Amino acid sequence: MQTAKVTPQSKMRAADVAYDAIESMIVTLQLKPGAPIVESDLIEITGLGRTPLREALMRMSSNGLIVQLPRRGLIVKDIEAAEHVTLIETRRVIEKLIASSAARRASPQLRQDILACGEKMVSAAANGQLDEFMAADQALDHVIHEACRNPSAVAAVIPLIIKCRRFWYAYQHEGDMHEAARCHMLLAQGIADGNEAAASTGAENLMDYLESYTRKVING
Fold it and tell me: Which intervals hold domain HTH gntR-type (predicted)?
């Protein structure tokens, strides 16, 4: 596995940089489900020290990305499709709160940024560019979270989003980027318009899509 070493950003703690780097490897399946977590390998890959690395791994354990198994140590948690349905059930409630809050509280600049991210997702889907699509999806999450001004809701939803993103990478052949982009665009438009009901409905529609996609994976 070849991954460029990470240079800590000036305003980020080393543990945060380590977390972001390892999370990306897990989400994009560079570290596959069931793979062992080898500290020495991760130190070499990231170029970071053992202390920030261990702090990052503790956070991942609490978020459910990695698990401790007897005699096997830390491994990347398996993807369990059936469990994913209940994850989306929980995420649905939080996402509707975040969407309506963002519609109510977003600044004019953030409304423009949200709409731009949605448009980038639509464009990436039209061109079949998965990496660009996922980058725009992540950027949309970040700006909506900033706009909603509800850190408790954001903290609760982030681990769920991370698992959903990994699920998409694992089963992208079952997904429909065009439909996913359409749902995200409806959400973005509702927030940008300051329409709380439309934003909440957009979040609901997105969760409906994610649930139907998950059930398609389960049913083979």
Answer: 12-79
Which DSSP string do the residues of 97-154 spell out, in sequence order?
HHHHHHHHH--HHHHHHHHHHHHHHHHHHHTT-HHHHHHHHHHHHHHHHHHHT-HHHH
Provide the residue-wise pLDDT of the chain in tens; the chain has 220 residues: 444 455 544 446 888 899 989 999 999 999 999 999 999 999 998 898 999 999 999 999 988 899 998 888 899 999 988 899 999 999 999 999 999 999 999 999 999 999 999 999 999 999 999 989 999 999 999 999 999 999 999 999 999 999 999 999 999 888 899 999 999 999 999 999 999 999 999 999 999 999 999 999 999 7
Q: How far is CA 64 from the centre of its chain?
A: 13
Bridge partners of residue 36, in order along the sequence: 75
Question: What residues contact residue 136 under an 8 Å CB cut-off, 6+ apart?
Answer: 117, 120, 121, 124
Q: What type of residue is 213?
A: Y
Check if the beta carbon of residue 26 is closer than 8 Å to that of residue 75: no
**Number of C-alpha atoms within 13 angstroms, CB side, residue 81?**
15
What's the one-letter identity of residue 189? Q
Measuring CA to CA, how many Å separate 46 from each of 6, 12, 18, 65, 180? 5, 15, 7, 18, 32
**Closest C-alpha to 77, from 112, 37, 50, 21:** 37
SS3 28: coil
